[in-house]
Each structure stands twice: as C-alpha cells, then as structure tokens.
Write a structure and sequence with these properties.
With 198 residues, the chain is α+β, with helices and mostly antiparallel strands. It has a single domain (2-197), classed as Lipopolysaccharide (LPS) transport protein A like domain (lipopolysaccharide transport protein A fold). It is built from one helix and ten strands; from the N terminus they run αββββββββββ. Strands 1-2-3-4-5-6-7-8-9-10 form a ten-stranded antiparallel sheet. The radius of gyration is 20 Å and the shape is elongated. 23% of the residues are buried.
Length: 198
C-alpha cells in the first residue's frame, strides 16, 4: 500500500516537472525569437508527424506584448515536444504579426517546427501569407523574429489587385516592407503576361 502511494507521488512529481520544462521551453522560444541566420544556408528538411512525443499539449495560444503593444500571436491545434531533438512540432498553425502602421500579416500552415536551441521556426505544408489585398502561397516559410524577415526558397505565387507574380525564392522584410522574389519571375496583369524574368 505504502509502495503504491510512493509510486503515485513520484509519478505526479515527474509529470509536474515535465510540464514545467515544456512550458518554460515554449515560453523561452516564443519570447526570444525563432531564427538563427547561420542555419539559413542549410536546406531545411520537413519533419513528418511522429507519435513518440514526450509531451503533447492541445490548443496552444501565445501572445507576445512589447511596450504594451501586441507584437505577434501564435495559435496551434496541438504542440508535440521532443527533448532529444530540442524541437517542438506544432500542428495547424496560425500566426499574426502586427505592424507599426496598424496592419497585420497573417500566416497559416499545416505544421511548424520550433528549434529550441537555435530559436528557428519553419512552417510547412500549404503555407499562406496574407496582408491587405495580397496573398502569397508556397510550401514553406522561415520567420526571423528578431529581424522580422520572412524567407523561402520554394516556388511562390503572389496575387493581389489583379496582379499575379510567380517565382522561386522570396525575402520579405516586414520592417521596411521590401519584397524580393529571387528568380524566375512571371508577372501577369488581367491574365496577360507583362514580363518573364530569370
């Protein structure tokens, strides 16, 4: 009897410790950013959903506030933590980045990987980015929280105000609002090709 009580108390302590660790790691990753520029040159590999996560949290919702103003919000249907890889896998991700002029940038993806050590975040699978009348579709995005830069090497299609831009590779600086499509750019206006570059 005493042995069972001892085991139950020990298991409860272990669960509390694990929950504390995952909460601390999630908050630290989200608070300090998601990007290490040294990893941008290496190709990012998608990670499929695994079932052996040490901790699973349903309904993740985090808001970062700086100087009394919302900086960004992150929501996910589920978070799975893998301590051996120091990664958190987020399922059904939605993020909102708040701009200084009051506008918002919305990002959605099937899943995202947060790298605890490097503070990178990679979003994969049916990724969309939208702001105002413009919408961008691609297979992956990488967001640098400190520099507020979004990048991808994948094919991109951007639409808005009757214009369609197609290319490969993109860099978007949210602070300066500068957008650069790296190569193979096709521009269509009203269904007519205006330019083919690359």
């Amino acid at each position: 009897m005493k042995e069972n009580v001892f085991k139950q108390k020990r298991m409860l302590k272990l669960w509390r410790l694990a929950l504390g660790v995952i909460t601390l790691l999630l908050v630290s990753v989200l608070a300090y950013g998601w990007w290490d520029s040294s990893h941008w040159n290496a190709p990012v590999k998608d990670t499929k959903i695994k079932l052996d996560a040490e901790m699973v949290i349903e309904g993740v919702n985090y808001t970062e506030v700086r100087k009394g103003e919302k900086f960004w919000e992150l929501r996910a249907k589920q978070a799975r933590f893998y301590s051996d890889k120091k990664q958190t896998l987020l399922i059904d991700v939605e993020a909102v980045i708040y701009l200084k002029d009051g506008r918002q940038v919305y990002i959605e993806g099937d899943r995202a990987i947060m790298h605890v050590k490097t503070k990178n975040i990679d979003i994969f699978g049916k990724v969309t980015l939208s702001t105002g009348p413009y919408k961008l579709v691609t297979d992956s995005l990488h967001y640098n929280n400190n520099k507020r830069v979004i990048k991808t090497r994948d094919r991109v299609i951007m639409t808005g105000n009757g214009i369609v831009l197609k290319g490969h590779g993109l860099s978007l600086d949210i602070n300066t609002k500068k957008l650069k499509i790296e190569s193979t750019v096709d521009c269509l206006l009203g269904g007519k090709v205006l330019a083919g570059l690359g």
